[in-house]
Automatic annotation (TrEMBL):
This is Diaminopimelate epimerase. It catalyses: (2S,6S)-2,6-diaminopimelate = meso-2,6-diaminopimelate. The gene is dapF. GO terms for molecular function: diaminopimelate epimerase activity. HAMAP family: DAP_epimerase. GO terms for cellular component: cytosol. It comes from Archangium gephyra.
Amino acid sequence: MSTTAEFFFKYHGLGNDFIVLDCRQGGTDIDAKFSQWLCDRRRGVGADGVLSLLPSDTALARMVVHNSDGSIAEMCGNGLRCAVKYLVDHSGEKPERIEVETGAGILTCMPGYGTDGVAEVEISMGPARLIAPNLPSGATGQPFLGEAVPGHSGLRGYAINMGNPHLVLLDQPLEDASRLGPVLERHPDFPERTNVEFVRVTEEGLAAVVWERGCGLTEACGTGACAAAVAAVLARRLPADAWLRVTLPGGDLHIRVPSDLSDVRLRGPVSFVFTGVVPDLPGR
Ligand SMILES: N[C@@H](CCC[C@H](N)C(=O)O)C(=O)O
């Protein structure tokens, strides 16, 4: 399936880059083959993912996240910040907040303005869940927190749902991400694969590298930074209810984790890159 969107818009949040397709008029989403091709950095436009904006009965738009391998993700923190910049900068208005429907529910987003429109976005990400169908706890009914990762001696992890699944490894060398990430992404205890965070606690907050489900190593990951901060708070390594700095290869995100995990906040910069006409998929 091609798309009803005539133009694409490329954005990034700290180097985590996305192609936005505004499909609110036609209402038709793309298929896996088309998203793989759009994301291809040699044969297509190039991105970590495609964000389709579809009509919503309850919010300004419904965002569907397509990973670069063609799979669908329930949620994407940096992607939502990019989608908010698109939606607001093309609205001719400067709202204090907008709502977007995602696989993690309807989320409230607060744009911050600079000279080129939206410059940063804060998102009320909703709850961090410790029991969810896409975590090991879906089968056991028990949270998986600071436990030995089956089949990987010496590894301890925290399984956290931010809409999408995450396995957070605290005190893990960040250099391990490219070696262990692809294996842990497909750990059999995660029924829908998982994102994997390699995290170190620093004096300033956290340093993290994320191996993302469906696209591999990225410069930054919003839900991954949230999951890392939640794990550090649960492990009592960092305080709840404070803004925490999470340093990723692409730069810093700021995360606040309430002690009851009810509404994690994510804040960071967002940039427009370029726009173009949606090309036809070769061979179609
Ligand atoms: N980079 C994103 C997460 C994108 C989805 C992820 N790859 C998944 O499959 O869950 C973010 O900023 O949260």
